[in-house]
Specification:
The protein is built from 11 helices and 18 strands. It has 453 residues and is of the alpha+beta class. The longest helix has 23 residues.
Length: 453
């Protein structure tokens, strides 16, 4: 039986523009595939043709409008067999992607992993060579080793959405299965969090795009003192804030200078000092903080105002974020604690975490007795609820999207170790997110072309 769709004018080029548009006949699918251009830096384009002749010698193009509605051409295959369409598109793109992969295989890793942080969604993508011995593939036609995005959102209850725009969610898996098989790679897509269908699917395509970029790149391009790192340091980015209120007197300076040896943090709260010192060390930035706060009241005003100020300084220093890597995933271990931070310098602040179980064990982060309560009456301890609030204030004022995942909430992991492990992972992610990606030549890593809100 002849295929219903033909995919032509296909472009899939590494670190270059495709030269052709993305026209699948499903507008939302176009938008998702376009994430390759923005986040994988793999230029991709294609056009889908209807193989059913509408007139002698003529095929119906995705560029042709079917009505006066200017959007009709973009969605002309809304009522078509979308499983078949997505399979055809995935297969065609996979064949071309395989050529890109083969051209970089001598310098690239054999596998990659990335999570994409969106508000309301976090999806993990794993990519590996289909002949990787560490990956079990059931058969030659099953290179999509895991796909667990459903339900697509929480409405309708317990069901999720069946359609996003004109794309039917039941057809999405067929795209990935065909892509993986024809590209000669295994793909795993797993939803970690997500209640919004649009963001779940978008996170999956962005996670794949970023994982693909990692899969194609030599790891050394993001190392300290790499050309990308040095290009960021050369910008001499700085943020500085001084302010005095009835509650606190604060001076904060952030220097994204690739060095943390001059970091000095004096807040009057020892654990807060340690937390931000560790974060600065891992971020390879200089952080100078002096704060005199009303610790005779409690830790709230000092911890909150310091975190707000650091976030605001980062916003100053990072500027428009054009040309930056923007997104990264970092993991850290400390004693038995294991924490992962996924960060996006998105200008759309959002913070989510799963530290509640650990933070809920005791009242204070840094000093507790057997009953989980403070063993002293000093006002310089940092409460667990304020550690969470510090992270939230930092993320919101730094105008970033951050998901924190504690891998295992082990009882033997002290609260302090988990919190310092979080600071380590946060700093590592910030370091690479804020690096310049010289390939972008100053362009913003966004399908919109800007991070303006």
């Amino acid at each position: 039986m002849a295929a219903s769709f033909a995919v032509k004018n296909i472009a899939c080029v590494n670190e270059a523009k495709p030269g052709v548009p993305i026209l699948t006949g499903i507008g939302y699918l176009d938008h998702m595939i376009d994430q390759w251009n923005s986040h994988a830096q793999v230029g991709v384009g294609l056009e889908v043709f209807d193989n059913v002749e509408t007139a002698p010698g003529k095929k119906k193009l995705a560029t042709e409008n079917l009505s006066a509605d200017e959007h009709a051409g973009r969605n002309q295959f809304a009522s078509a067999n979308q499983v078949e369409l997505c399979t055809a598109v995935g297969h065609a793109l996979g064949i071309e992607l395989n050529k890109v992969i083969l051209s970089t295989k001598d310098k690239s890793p054999s596998h990659s992993r990335f999570c994409c942080p969106l508000d309301e969604a976090l999806v993990e993508c794993l990519i590996s060579s289909s002949n990787d011995a560490a990956v079990e593939v059931n058969n030659d036609d099953d290179c999509l080793v895991k796909y667990s995005l459903a339900p697509y959102g929480i409405y309708p209850r317990n069901v999720g959405r069946t359609q996003i725009g004109t794309l039917r969610t039941v057809a999405i898996e067929s795209f990935w299965k065909a892509l993986a098989t024809s590209a000669g790679i295994t793909i795993s897509l797993e939803k970690i969090r997500g209640d919004n269908a649009h963001h779940i699917v978008e996170s999956s395509f962005k996670a794949f795009s970023r994982a693909l970029r990692v899969y194609l790149d030599p790891p050394c391009i993001w190392e300290q003192k790499s050309p990308n790192d040095l290009a960021g340091v050369a910008l001499k980015r700085e943020g500085k804030i001084e302010r005095t209120t009835k509650e606190t007197s604060i001076s904060v300076q952030v220097l994204l200078n690739g060095c943390s040896k001059d970091t000095s943090v004096e807040t009057g709260t020892p654990f807060l000092d340690q937390f931000y010192t560790v974060l600065a060390n891992e971020a390879c930035m200089t952080l100078k903080i002096k704060c005199k706060g009303d610790l005779w009241v409690d830790d709230h005003h000092t911890a909150e105002d310091v975190s707000i100020a650091i976030g605001q300084c980062l916003t100053q220093a990072l500027g428009s974020k054009a040309g930056l890597n923007r997104m990264w995933l970092s993991e850290a271990t400390r004693e038995s604690a294991n924490v992962e931070v996924t960060m996006d310098l998105s200008n759309r602040p959002y913070f989510e975490h799963n530290l509640h179980e650990t933070l809920g064990r005791q009242e204070y982060v840094d000093d507790c007795g057997n009953d989980g309560k403070s063993s002293t009456d000093n006002g310089d301890l940092l409460s667990c609820e304020m550690l969470e609030h510090c992270l939230d204030s930092l993320v919101m004022n730094g105008r970033m999207t951050v998901h924190i995942v504690q891998k295992e909430a082990k009882e033997e992991s002290s609260v302090a170790d988990v919190c310092l492990c979080t600071a380590m992972a946060f700093g590592r992610a910030l370091r690479i997110c804020s690096m310049v990606d010289q390939r972008r030549a100053g362009a913003t890593a966004s399908s919109k072309g800007t991070l303006s809100v």
